Amino acid sequence: MSKDKPMKTLGARRRTSARAKSPEWADGLRRLYDSVVEEPLPDSFAQLLDKLDGDEHG
Amino acid sequence: MAEAARPQAETKGETTAASRNAIAFKRELTGVIPHLRAFARGLCGRPDLADDLVQETLLKAWAAQERFEPGTSMRAWTFVILRNAYLTDMRRNRFRAEYDETVAERVLVAPAGQESPLHLSDMHRALLTLPPERREALLLVGAGGFSYEEAAQICQCAVGTIKSRVGRARAALAQMIDTGQLPRRSTGDAVAHDAIMHELDTTVQSGH
User: Fold this and answer.
1) What is the distance, to the nearest Å, from the Cα of residue B35 to the centroid of all Cα atoms in its chain?
2) Most-buried pick from A22, B18, B136, B164 (CB within 10 A)?
3) CA atoms of A35 and A19, how far apart (whole Å)
4) How confident is the model over B54-112, as pLDDT tens digits?
5) Average per-residue pLDDT for chain A
6) Given a cut of 50, is residue B160 above it in pLDDT?
7) Any idea what the Cα angle at residue B80 is, between residues B127 and B73, rounded to 5°?
8) What CATH code is assigned to B107-206?
9) Does domain B16-91 have CATH number 3.30.559.10?
């Protein structure tokens, strides 16, 4: 019990100060963006660039 | 023809330098496609329309490649093009900020001991209710990681304007979460939803 208490207090304090700067959900915006960045890229984009590239040189 | 009159060595040298630049440009442009998709998805909500917007952006970027200064940010440069294309399409009413319900649910915030957390789709729907200029400001700074200064350059407005838009957008989202007025999932469980909102209410308020 006496061992747990200081750790809990420290954790709670850290969480509170982080939240004071930005709410817990703010990180969700970043993850929303990153979730799309990390999606596999459809081939259509590379094909478009290859076509544009080919048109210029061919 | 004028081209034929040029000394051969010069023509050859130019061609080599130009093709080296073209290769670098293509590589950099390819590299930012995932970011363009993320920005477009955040702006217009629907993945299919967002990808159309990215294709349009790539075409325009390619056509304008001589205006790109090597060494500057390709991501910022292409975001300006994407943003302008989006605004043009918005004026033609091609896009309505609509959330695609088929997108997979992903957990964003899972309060301890809470069974129904805040999902990616909740966040995205909330984002889409914001006025476009606040949404883009929050996307650039809060999601894309741009500085206020970079975001101001992309949006062609003052740094103070961006700060104010981001602040208002954050306040609006906080308000939605605070009051439990996040737009609902069409198939959402209202009881579970209220429970999440109550939990988030407590969480968010303690941080203010």
Assistant:
1) 7
2) B136
3) 23
4) 999 999 999 999 999 999 999 999 999 999 999 888 877 655 555 555 554 555 555 54
5) 70
6) yes
7) 110
8) 1.10.10.10
9) no
Give CA–CA dist B76/B146, Å, rounded.
9
Q: At a CB cut-off of 8 Å and minimum separation 6, what does B147 contact?
A: B141
ipTM of the complex: 0.72
Tens-digit pLDDT string for chain A (58 aa)? 444 444 444 444 444 443 444 667 778 889 889 999 999 999 999 999 999 988 776 5
B-interface mutation test, from A22, A25, A27, A44, most B Cβ less than 10 A away? A25
The boundaries of every CATH 1.10.1740.10 domain in chain B are: 16-91
* AA identity, residue A50: D
Residue of B36, B53, B79, B206 to mutate, interface with A, max A Cβ within 10 Å: B206
Question: Would you tell me how many other CB atoms lie within 10 Å of the CB of residue B59?
Answer: 15
The DSSP secondary-structure symbol of B105 reads P
Cβ–Cβ gap B143/A45 under 8 Å: no
Task: Determine the 3-state secondary structure of B71 from DSSP.
Answer: coil
Task: Specify the domain boundaries for CATH 1.10.10.10 within chain B.
Answer: 107-206
